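Q: How would the structure tokens look for this protein?
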Amino acid sequence: MSTTPTTTSLVDLAARRQLPHHQYMDPATIEWIKANRPDLGAAWPPPLGPASKQLLDRSALPAAWLAEPRLQDSLHGVRHSMRTAALAALLAEIHGLDDADTATVVLAAAVHDCQRLHDKDDRGHGARAAIWLAANADAVWTHFDMVATPRRIIQAATAIRLHDLPYDAFCPDDRADYARAELICDLVKAADALDRYRLPKLSWWPDVRHIREPAFDQLRAIAFNLVVISETAHLAGASSAEAVRFALAEKGLV
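A: Here is the predicted structure in token form.
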């Protein structure tokens, strides 16, 4: 379901603190993103293995999984979830994770925002998505052509629940949960943060101070390029899933 974008650019609305609850990319904002490209160097991501490529091929979420249909094509919709899944797969590759752990990271990254209600500071959306995942685990793992296990469900749900909580805001229960899925949580948080180049304010762009991932800087360039390519393709008429698949293919990731 696509919703007609606002006639005022997101970058102008952000500067005036007037962003609507549901936000859609526009030509002026993507040109502003391109013009503000940081000095990131060349993008040389590690190659992805066959298992990761299969996961990314399934990373476009069914519309029925979204709590709010208006978010399907918004800044926190399908394009964001697919790029986050791709960045999570790259981080898993860098860490040398096995296929099972990689699958857990990619799946969690793909569904982390599925229970958002809007594109602003929707507090608690991580916890809602974690509950949703636990209740729909068989359907989600089947969608990714895998079988759910209690351990993997707990790891993925934990990473999803904690993805929107700053590390320094963890309560004792959060820290206990984090300790049981530490690397999965760190990689999902890092992948989500790397996709912030889509946001219409420079102070909201990726910031290494908020993550715990040594490879963060290594993937900044590919993260920026995936945003620019996929958002441009979507504005040219491609569906959200088609736009990200085009960007992934352009960068040799699928």
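The chain is about 55% helix and 0% strand.

The two ends are 26 Å apart (CA to CA).

Upvote if useful.
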